[in-house]
Amino acid sequence: MRYFNIAGPCNEASHYMIEAATRLKGVERLIDMNQYFVIHAARQSGKTTYLQDLTKRVNAGGRYYALYCSLEGVQNITDPKEGIPAIISCIKDYFVYSGIPHGDKFAQNADLTDYVSLLKTELTRFCILLDKPLVVFFDEADCLSENTLILFLRQLRMGYNSRSMTPFVHSLALVGMRNIRDFKAKVRPDSESLGSASPFNIVAESLTLKNFNREEIAQL
Q1: Which of 30, 47, 160, 211 is buried deepest, with most CB atoms within 10 A?
Q2: Residue 213: inside a domain, yes or no?
Q3: Can you give the residue range of the structural domain that contains 49?
Q4: pLDDT in tens, 131-165
Q5: 47 vs 24: CA distance, rounded Å
Q6: Domain total of the chain
Q7: Which CATH number goes with the domain that contains 46?
Q8: Residue 210 to residues 7, 40, 207, Cα–Cα distance (Å)
Q9: What is the pTM assigned to this prediction?
């Protein structure tokens, strides 16, 4: 028996829901254009339901491999010496159950002490193994804190900027309650600079899930 779910991600078999793909337009175009982008919305607005559905649709399309990864478990780890290896461990767990070829080989022989380039290095090594481009959706990205957040974003930026020479993630989404511009306030006060190599300048677009409109409510 289906019911209205307010406790977590929805699925069509168990819950009354509108088709997740209708909630946000233009994401597939951004993926095809190799873009890195942000999806932000309030808590319990359907972000995770949308992402898990999008991951299935992208994989079913056959052009890319798509990975969903929640970073909620890395919350409040401010020291990147601990935070970046924790992110790698989190990604590794999701790869194992993703159905993506070679998923068990991600970060298999990683040097966890090299936290400054660890994320970029391991994503590059994994992309080399694949016969199709990799797309990654990082859910709860705004759980990351301070220097862990900075180094996470900087390594993504390094990989993004070198994609013409070195394999890296084809398209990527950072998903959470905050717009990427709001991440700066979480890192340090406005009076302090993040430096010239800003990790925030590769985002092509910021999208948001809105409340249900009248037609969607009627459909539910």
Answers
A1: 47
A2: no
A3: 21-208
A4: 999 999 999 998 898 899 989 999 999 999 999 89
A5: 10
A6: 1
A7: 3.40.50.300
A8: 19, 10, 10
A9: 0.88
What are the angstrom distances between the C-alpha of 6 and each of 72, 205, 206?
A: 19, 28, 25
Tokens 């990351």: give the residue: 144
Residue 10 lies in a domain: no
Sheet of 171-176, strand order: 65-70, 134-139, 171-176, 36-40, 203-208
Q: Hey, which residues does 67 pair with through a beta bridge?
A: 136
State the burial class of residue 177 (Cβ atoms within 10 Å of its Cβ: 0-12, 13-18, 19+): middle
* Amino acid, single-letter form, for residue 146: E
Is 118 contained in some domain? yes
For the record, the structure tokens of 177 come out as: 């309650």
**DSSP state, residue 3:** B
Distance CA 167, CA 157 (A): 13
Residue 66: CA count within 13 A, CB half-sphere: 19
Dihedral of CA 23/45/133/99: which sign? negative
Q: Is the pLDDT of residue 173 over 90?
A: yes
pLDDT of residue 196: 42
Is 2 inside any structural domain?
Answer: no
Contact by Cβ (8 Å): 20, 54: yes
Distance CA 39, CA 178 (A): 8
Please spell the DSSP secondary structure of 109-134, one letter per residue: T--TT-TTTHHHHHHHHHHHH-SS-E
